[in-house]
Structures are given as C-alpha cells and as structure tokens.
Amino acid sequence: MSRVRRLLPLLGCVLLGCVLLTLYAPGGPLRRDEPPPAPAGWSPYDLAGSIEAAQTRLRRHPDDAAVWAALGTMYLEQARRTADTAYYGKAQGAFERSMRRPTGDGEPYIDAVIGMGELANARHDFAGAVRWAERARKEAPFRWPLYGVLTDAHLELGQYEQAETALRRMLGGRPDLASFTRAARLEQLHGRPGPARDLLNRACAIPGDPSEYAFCQWQLGELSWSNGDPRSALTAYTQALAADPGHVPSQAGKARAEATLGHTGQALRDYSAAVARSPSFVVEYGELLEHLGDMDGARRQYAVFTAQHKLLAANGTTDNLATGMFEADHGDAGTAVRHLRAEWTRRQSVEVADALGWALHRAGHHAEAATYAARADALGGRNALFAYHRGKIEHALGHTAAARAHLTRALSINPHFSPAGEKRARALLAETS
C-alpha cells in the first residue's frame, strides 16, 4: 500500500498536467468542442432505437460479428442506465455470438472479448474480468478499453497497485472520459476529493452525447454527496436526469439528497420512481421509510430485496456483499458474516473489509472486527460510513478516545451518510463525553 501512496501524487500530476495539456492542446486528439469518436454501429442519443436497428440488421445478416459485438455493448449500456440486470444475459448472448468469427475477422472478436470482461465486472466476477481482459491484451495490446476492464477489476479485487498500472496504460493510450472517471475514483479512494472533482469536471466537458454526460454528472453527484454537500449533489443529479431522464442511479441519488434537505415528499416520489424501474435501490428506500416511521413500507421494500436475491441465488448468482450488508443491518448477523467471509476470499477491497468488520461487530466479535475496520481505512479515503463503523467498533471495545475520534470524523465528512446515522453518532458522542 505504501507504494501506491507514493505513486498517486505523481498520477495526479500526470492526469491534471501533461495528459490534459496534450488532450486539449491545439491539434491535440480532443479539443473541447470535439467529443471522442462514438463506438461504431450505434448512437447513444437513442439507445433503444439503436438496439432495435441492430436487431433488424442481424435478422437479415445473422453472421455480422461486428453488429453482434455492438449489440452486446448496447445491452450493457442499457443495464448501466436502468440498473436492470436482465440485460446482462442478453449482452452475454450477443458477445458469444460475435466471437463465432470467421478466420481473420479479428476486430469484432476483440470487441466481444473486451465486452465479456465488462460484463464480468458488472456481474461482480472480477477475477473473470481480469482473465477476459488479459485474453484481449494478448491479441490486441493497444485496444485501450481493455485497460478499463483491468482497472475496474483490480480496484474491486483490492489490488490497487495493479489497478494503477492498468490505468496509467489506459491514460497513456487514450486520455478520455473512460480513463478520467476511473482516475477520479482512484483519487477518491485515497481521500482526495479535490483532484477527483477536477478530473470529473474535465470528463464532463468531453462527451458529446447525453448518456455519457449523465454518467459524469451522476459521479459528480456521488462525490458531492459522499463529502457532505447534498445541495451540490442534488444539482448534479438533476443535471444528469435533464440529459438522460432514464438514468436510474441519478433518480435514486436525487431522492437521497432531497430527503437530506428536507424535501421529504419529493424524495419519496423519486425513490418510488427509481425502484419501479429497478430493485437496486429498495434497501435505500426502505431505510428512509423506516427513518420516517413507516415500518410497514420499509418491510415491503426489504421483502423485495430478499425475494430478488433468492431469485438470483436460484439462478446460480449470489451477491455476497449486498446480501451481507443487508443482513448486518436488517437481518441476521451470523448470516451476514458467512456471506462476507465468502466475499473476502474472492476479493479484499476496502468496501468488503468495512462490510465484514461491521458484520463481525454486529455478531459480537469486536476484536476481529477492528482489524477489518482498520483495513477499510488503509488507503486513507474519506468515507463517513467507514469512520462511523470504526467508531462503533472501538466503542464496543471500550476504546473511548478512539471511538470519539472516528465518530467525529464521520460527522465531519458527511453527517448524512445514512438516514439515522447522524442521530446515532451524535448520541454515542454525547454518551462518551
């Protein structure tokens, strides 16, 4: 980890200095009034129409590998916009069909291989994503999107040095929206919201289509939210939805910010609209309802989550991180620990470390929990929920001074990290004063 800390200031210099000057210089690859070239074969301005056009083309030319690869990419984009995992199976089918290539038809094949890596990341099969990306790199090392797959996968696996190496390669070959947004995430993980915001603002100036602009604005909203600025977050989420009204993560983010700012009625309407499109945000919605005293409404949302994950498990897919986090807060702590220990064997990211530490604490294993809570802080990031969890664990161990320090840090970062979080943290600080 020390090596990552030494190298990342240099990364920030590269990103905000040489790379950006090259990118926007006269005659450079991207001037501010020139978006990067769109992927061949589809228009993100009308994703549904592009999907239909690709399907029509394939009915006439069923062996067109390039269109199959493009269709898979479109399905993944639709999944990202709508948070609807049903598109994953469609994307897989399209990519697999594309890989049935005629001899010598290499470019669509590599597109499909990279697409399979993106799909593996979306399904949380991060080790599988690395394998797909390495397969693409072996055949086409200068296809820059494969390094995005590697960056994402290594980040989720907790392999931060490898993630940085892949990102540097990506930035060197294609400094664009995809590489800038990933660099911003790495900066945020290391507790540097200023550089992260600068990178995202640069990224938002590049894209020429609404879906990419919405994605950038959503990330800016998430950054503002996580750093305790719900007003700026609301502005960013609203701008994202103005560009792409179907962007479900921004709808849920907007609801979260509205609830914090006291716009409860609008927050409930926006959460209802978000979960009607995707069940990904039912736990968030349920926690707000519970905070507002609507226990029946909260239980209905939690029941949707449980049913959804039972269905996924029946189909051979288990999201141990999401299930473990839910069980730790709303179910059985022992079940949470089992799920999260299983996830820790697969990947050792800061998110999994925090979740496992919290589950162990809820199950009464405070000393072991403290080791994972410390791991979650290892990169030096600014995460209010992590700090709150660590404060609660230290309090359970009788370490009053450490507990107060972490709880105070949580409130200073973002007092709105959960509907009831600020109240609980302040109560515990009052108790230990």
TrEMBL record:
Task: Name the source's superkingdom.
Answer: Bacteria
Q: Which PROSITE patterns match?
A: PROKAR_LIPOPROTEIN
Q: Which InterPro entries match?
A: TMTC_O-mannosyltransferase (IPR052384), TPR-like_helical_dom_sf (IPR011990), TPR_rpt (IPR019734)
The molecule here is called Tetratricopeptide repeat protein
Species this protein is from? Nonomuraea rosea
